[in-house]
Specification:
The structure holds 3 protein chains of 3 kinds. By secondary structure, chain A is mostly helical. Chain A contains 14 helices and 2 strands. Chain A is globular and about 85 Å long. In chain C, strand 4 and strand 5 form a beta hairpin. Chain C is built from 13 helices and 6 strands. The two termini of chain C are about 15 Å apart. The chains are: A mainly alpha, B alpha/beta, C alpha+beta.
Chain lengths: ~325, ~575, ~375
């Protein structure tokens, strides 16, 4: 039963991924004119000779004079073998530019998710169990602020505090000496030293949201008859709490991967820009502003793919956690 | 107050004295239980009876101190005489449970071990995400130091004791994989895990069908005899009380009204409220005299509705990848005839298809096959099953419906004048001032004042709302009314009133009723003929008295013998008929 | 609950319609009431921006680059005694001879007097009536004052923030209206008809929900021609925001529709002979409205945050249009905020607006079903 559910769910992602690729391609098609015009303009600007023959070759290579479907087909068949096209701005294949940044983006998103859980789980439980206590009010207030504060504003404020009061720049993921260095143990340690700032910034609003959800769910569950049953069995309040209501309130908790993951990936774009992190966001922004569409398209496709996969993982975890879902 | 000591003083295991449980509210504390005292003897069944809001459930929970927050015990004693139970060491040992810290170790050691409890809703009272075995073994391991393996073996044994088939595999199943009756059995198994000396059962059968109810009560009785438990049974059903009780406590508005032995309460009730409760039940235990008198004056006419070969299948396939084979036959080849001026009862348990039948007749659901011929006033015959457009509208004006739930069937956002006026307005019968005077007239017919018009449904009690629903049903001067469990949501005392109103309307307007119910006593009171439904089929049909006194089909026999009789001297339910499907 | 139908017991609750019951239960929610007041205030500021702002938000002044905020005083005490008259301390600009850095020093001797409802730059109130009065102006029309400081071109941050309020708050409202149309239409169709239509719409909703919104928004806005006039761009941005925002509303509407479709009172309406149209509009929609309103209120802050984020990145609204996001773009640079932390002021407005709308929405949601407890 469980296995069929999982297989079904995995099969379901295929049409989603297909749709995602169409959306990504449609987006990079949206600006007026084709990229070669932009490309030619870029070349002309930098003083290079515009080689008509080369342009023509590119035009055939990407089928730019052909209908949407054909262009899409050429693009997607390239993507499937790892060829995302070339970046006109950087003058090199897109695949050279994206992977490290995507890896860091994923790393950032996953760390933030873990942080969010670690914060929201105990605080949510506390807040529900000690309803209307001072601690609960404090948490609720901070939670509201966390929800209302845009990520980038929080990042700016932290940067301001860092610069004005501590004289330190809080941006970036690496110290200057490691920025271009190859991966090593020391570089990883350096990454860990820096990553917590964006993690906290990004995690604040999702933690706040999650605490609210956890609190509301748990309050709901605490009044359910099965809690009374468990109490009538003679369970202690603490064991009872963890075994029954918390266990059931976990369902929406797990489903947060579904909604929080897209949000984290989204939010990371802006925060990364403010903090100038070497992740996907800033390069995507730059590519969009420069209309460097193959690069932008690759990022959009990969970011969307990440979130679609995130949804799938969340659904599967949910089925593992809640037997009722498997039978639906 | 009647005789105080009902149980032999030497055998009393739980003694409640002057118990008060309060809930703080904005208007000061609300006393849910107000100065209640009673005794519970070993091996004895004490029934606590009362209507909704009488505080009987809170009383039960107060004993174990598991009242929902913010309620708490503010006065009184709950004494557990442990030395008189099997668990006692022989030495005098009396514990006042009301004095114990509600979250403390002492009371927790008693919960589930000395005193166990089962609840009304077996679905929501068990955790949906833990297996049955897990939840039973938990109690065992909580109170006794046994290994996981041993606890599991004992869980299987307990499931076998409560007659759950294939306990070895059932132990690893989840609650939602069981039917309501099986869940309640699992719940009982859980409560028996540590051989408690007292079992508190809070409306354990209210959510169940009558045949399942009989089995569960039977099971509790048998286990009580085996283990010598004291049972405190909380119920609103006087029939259940008569079938099971040794002693009775009657409660109302949080106060104890009367207590005594079953004989005393049933044959010599002292308090008016007790008398009223009993009278309401007894009224329903026989045919309505008004109906019988009327039939003598005016004979039943020719057929109005003829249902032939009606089939309704529900397509259970869902999702994207539709698979075949998931079809539920809710109605399986139904033949029924309703005559003019007749009350035809349809009785059956949940899932028998009786509600689907009513809804097909009004085309809320479209039938899959078969015909439903309706003979209009002028003699013209139309098939409801295939009618559409104007034809269907005309039929729906003549055949109307009364719903079960008086809360859900009235739009809370419309006032009474709008609700009753809606059919008149959309059918172009009346508007403006004429509409208002017609609504006032209808309110008067159902016994509500015209001032009710401006009010919204939330201003009315359940019985009054049902009257509003009836006024809406008769607004278009119909010929046939389908009443789907029209009295089930009401307290017993209100049921006869509503049924009498329907009989009065029948006389005034010449109505014919299809009366759908799970409650055989209501059917007996109201209906001339009855059709018994089981799994989508009509298994027996005949004159109500004939069917009730001399049932032919095995299922009818089982159903009738499972109905608890409100007469403790004729406890028939326990020696009842069992009907195995498929035979 | 009144069990006696005595005409003298004709109390208010019994004849109260759903809106009255909702208002009664909403009123008990203190935070929501506070939120309501703030939201109304912000919209009033937005509507009467020309009146509230002391100056033209675009007028630059080289003498006042990064002018610090001034404290407003209401009591003017001089040697002659004291009087009630609003004033601010004047500042003078000093330039360091060696570093050439400029600093503002309070000019102890000089006060700039202000008056309420004084005459200033003429404008058209609501675009109709020519008016000269402003909420607060300097007595001497040549003087300037900066309650929220000035930006890098010496423009008054107060006036800019006030005009930003108009754009940012309205974009939330317009965007939500568009989402609502989409959401109610698709959610309603989905919930009412069910079956294959429902399936397709649900998959689309799921798909849109699984997309990371900001990259999609960025890509969409990046494809808008920069040459478009401000108003066209405003509507284009709003449209793009609502293209993603409708899903949540569609889910709410669908869920409610599905639940309502099976309710006995809706079945009863159909049996009463109501047409499909009447069943939907007379019987189902009133029950939906309150929930939809609550969801809409909770959707507005999401829109505001989205617009702010996009404009902040330079892909949303562009100057000369003023929105909170456009203003915060000025604070992007760490050097400028270190020098002029008052550039954060629009951020505070975002915070307050989003909080207030959330409180309001929560209160509305709790009050949305005044019949809920009773049935429980």
């Amino acid at each position: 039963m469980l296995l069929t559910y999982i297989i079904k769910r995995i099969l379901w992602t295929i049409p989603f991924l297909f749709a995602v690729s169409i959306v990504a391609f449609a987006l990079i098609q949206a600006p007026p004119g084709d990229y070669l015009t932009t490309f030619a303009a870029t070349l002309a600007q930098s003083g290079d000779m515009v080689d008509q023959e080369r342009l023509e070759a590119l035009r055939t290579r990407y089928g730019l004079d052909q209908p949407f479907i054909v262009q899409y087909w050429k693009w997607i068949s390239g993507v499937l073998v790892g060829d995302f096209g070339i970046s006109f701005e950087w003058q090199q294949p897109v695949s050279n530019l994206i992977w490290e940044r995507m890896a860091l983006s994923l790393c950032l998103a996953v760390s933030t998710l873990l942080f969010t859980w670690a914060v929201a789980f105990p605080i949510g439980i506390y807040s529900a169990v000690r309803k209307y206590s001072i601690g609960d009010y404090l948490i609720t207030t901070i939670g509201f602020l966390g929800l209302a504060m845009p990520n980038f504003l929080l990042a700016l404020v932290l940067m301001y505090i860092g610069v004005v009061y501590f004289g330190a720049d809080v941006g970036g993921l690496f110290s200057p000496e490691y920025q271009t260095a190859p991966w090593s143990w020391a570089k990883l340690v350096d990454l860990l030293k820096h990553i917590w700032i964006p993690v906290v910034i990004l995690g604040t609003s999702s933690s706040a949201a999650l605490i609210r959800i956890m609190r509301a769910n748990l309050l709901d569950e605490l009044n359910k008859p099965y809690v009374t049953t468990a109490r009538a069995k003679g369970l202690s309040e603490f064991r009872l709490l963890l075994k029954y209501p918390v266990r059931l309130a976990l369902n929406p908790f797990v489903s947060t991967i579904g909604w929080a993951f897209p949000q984290l990936i989204s939010g990371a774009v802006i925060t990364a820009f403010v903090l100038s992190l070497p992740t996907a966001g800033p390069l995507l922004l730059q590519a969009l502003l420069a209309q460097d569409m193959y690069l932008a398209g690759a990022f959009i496709l990969l970011l969307c793919t990440l979130t679609v996969i995130g949804m799938m993982v969340s659904d599967i975890l949910l089925a593992l956690l809640d037997p009722r879902i498997r039978y639906r | 107050m009647a005789s105080i000591a009902t149980a032999d003083p030497g055998r009393v295991v739980v003694e409640v004295k002057g118990l008060v449980t309060e809930f703080p509210t904005r208007h000061g504390p609300f006393r849910a239980v107000d100065d209640v005292s009673f005794d519970l003897g070993a091996g004895e069944t004490l029934c606590v009876v009362g209507e909704s809001g009488s505080g009987k459930s809170v009383t039960a929970r107060s004993i174990l101190q598991i009242v929902d927050t913010p309620g708490r015990i503010t006065a009184g004693e709950v004494l557990l005489h442990r030395h008189r139970t099997a668990r006692g060491s022989g030495a005098e040992e009396t514990i006042d449970l009301a004095r114990l810290e509600p979250r403390g170790r002492a009371i927790r050691a008693i919960r589930g071990r000395d005193i166990a409890m089962i609840f009304q809703e077996p679905m929501s009272s068990l955790s949906p995400v833990h297996t049955i075995g897990n939840q039973i073994a938990e109690v065992i391991r909580l109170h006794e130091s046994v290994s996981k393996k041993e606890a599991r073996a004992r869980s299987i044994e307990l499931l076998r004791q409560v007659e759950i088939p294939t306990p070895e595999s059932a132990v690893d199943r989840y609650t939602f994989e069981f039917s309501g009756g099986m869940r309640q059995r699992a719940m009982i198994a859980m409560s028996l895990a540590c051989n408690p000396s007292v079992l508190i059962a809070d409306e354990p059968t209210t959510a169940l069908d009558v045949t399942t109810q009989a089995e569960i009560l039977d099971l509790i009785k048998r286990l009580q005899d085996d283990h010598g438990m004291a049972v405190m049974l909380i119920t609103h059903d006087m029939g259940v009380v008569a079938e099971t009780a040794d002693a009775i406590v009657v409660m109302r508005h949080g106060k104890l009204v009367e207590r005594g032995s079953v004989e005393e309460i049933f044959y010599a009730p002292q308090h008016d409220y007790t008398k009223m409760l009993l009278q309401a039940v007894l009224d329903l235990d026989r045919p309505s005299e008004r109906r019988l008198a009327r039939r003598a004056v005016q004979a039943i006419g020719g057929p109005v509705v003829e249902i032939r070969g009606l089939v309704k299948e529900f397509d259970l396939r869902h999702g994207f990848m539709r698979r075949k084979g998931h079809v539920l036959k809710a109605l399986d080849d139904i033949d029924l005839t309703l005559h003019e001026g007749e009350n035809l009862g349809v009785v059956g348990e949940s899932g028998s298809g009786k509600t689907t039948l009513g809804r097909c007749l009004l085309r809320v659901h479209d039938p899959s096959r078969g015909e439903m011929l309706y003979r209009a006033g002028g003699g013209a015959v139309a098939d409801v099953a295939t009618a559409s457009g104007n034809g269907l509208e005309r039929i729906r004006r003549d055949i109307r419906m009364i719903f079960q739930d008086p809360f859900a069937s009235l739009n809370p956002r419309m006032n009474v004048a709008q609700i009753i006026g809606e059919p008149l307005l959309v059918n172009g019968v009346a508007r403006g001032a004429a509409l208002r005077s017609r609504v006032a007239e209808l309110l008067d017919v159902v016994g509500l004042p015209a001032t009710a018009m401006e009010r919204y449904p939330h201003a009315f009690s359940g019985g009054q709302r049902q009257r509003i629903g009836i006024a809406r049903a008769i607004a278009l001067e119909p010929r046939v009314i389908v009443a789907d469990e029209a009295t089930s949501a009401l307290d017993v005392s209100l049921r006869t009133q509503v049924l009498d109103l329907l009989l009065e309307l029948q006389e005034r307007l010449g109505l014919s009723f299809i009366f759908i119910s799970h409650d055989i006593s209501v059917i007996r009171y109201f209906c001339d003929r009855v059709a018994v439904m089981f799994r989508g089929k009509v298994v027996e049909i005949g004159a109500t008295e004939e069917v009730c006194t001399n049932p032919q089909h095995g299922y009818t026999k089982a159903l009738l013998s499972a109905v608890p009789h409100p007469d403790p001297r004729h406890r028939g339910m326990l020696g009842r008929h069992r009907y195995e499907a498929g035979t | 609950m009144a069990s006696v139908l005595d005409p003298r017991l004709h109390t208010d609750t019994e004849i109260a319609s759903q809106w009255r019951l909702m208002w009664w239960s909403f009123r008990r929610h203190t935070l929501a009431m506070v939120g309501l007041v703030i939201v109304l205030l912000l919209y009033l500021i937005g509507i009467f921006a020309e009146f509230v702002a002391p100056f033209d938000p675009q007028s630059a002044s080289a003498r006042h680059v990064y002018h610090p905020p001034q404290m407003i005083h209401f009591i003017d005490s001089t040697e002659d005694g004291w009087r009630i008259k609003p004033w601010v301390q004047a500042y003078t600009l000093e330039r360091d001879k060696f570093t050439l850095q400029t600093t503002f020093k309070p000019d102890e001797g000089k006060r700039i007097y202000l008056s309420f409802f004084g005459k200033g730059t003429p404008y058209n109130l609501l675009g109709l009536f020519p008016v000269e009065r402003h909420l607060l102006v300097p007595d001497d029309p040549k003087e300037r004052f900066f309650l929220f400081g000035a930006d890098r071109l010496g423009r008054d941050m107060l006036s800019r923030t006030v005009f930003g309020t108009r754009v940012s708050m309205s974009i939330g409202l317009v965007g939500v209206t568009l989402s609502l149309l989409l959401g109610v239409l698709l959610g309603g169709i989905s919930g009412y008809y069910g079956g294959a239509v429902d399936m397709i719409i649900q998959r689309v909703v799921e798909f849109v929900l699984s997309l990371p919104t900001i990259p999609i928004w960025l890509a969409l806005t990046a494809s808008l021609p920069a040459s478009w006039p401000p108003l066209t761009r405003y509507f284009a941005i709003t449209l793009i925001l609502s293209l993603v925002g409708w899903t949540e509303l569609a889910r709410v509407v669908r869920g409610r529709f599905l639940a309502l479709r099976g309710e006995d009172f809706v079945v009863a309406a159909r049996l009463d002979g109501c047409s499909e149209k009447r069943v939907i509009f007379r019987h189902m929609l009133p029950s939906l409205m309150s929930h939809v309103i609550a969801s809409v209120t909770l959707a507005i802050p999401v829109m505001i945050l989205a617009e702010t984020s996009l404009s902040f990145l330079g892909l949303g609204l562009l100057p000369p249009t003023i929105s909170w996001g456009v203003l915060l773009k000025e604070a992007q640079n760490i050097r400028s905020i270190a020098q002029a932390p008052w550039l954060f002021v629009p951020g505070a407005f975002v915070l307050v607006a989003v909080l207030a709308l959330n409180f309001l929405g929560d209160g509305l949601r709790d009050a949305a079903d005044p019949y809920a407890q009773e049935r429980g």
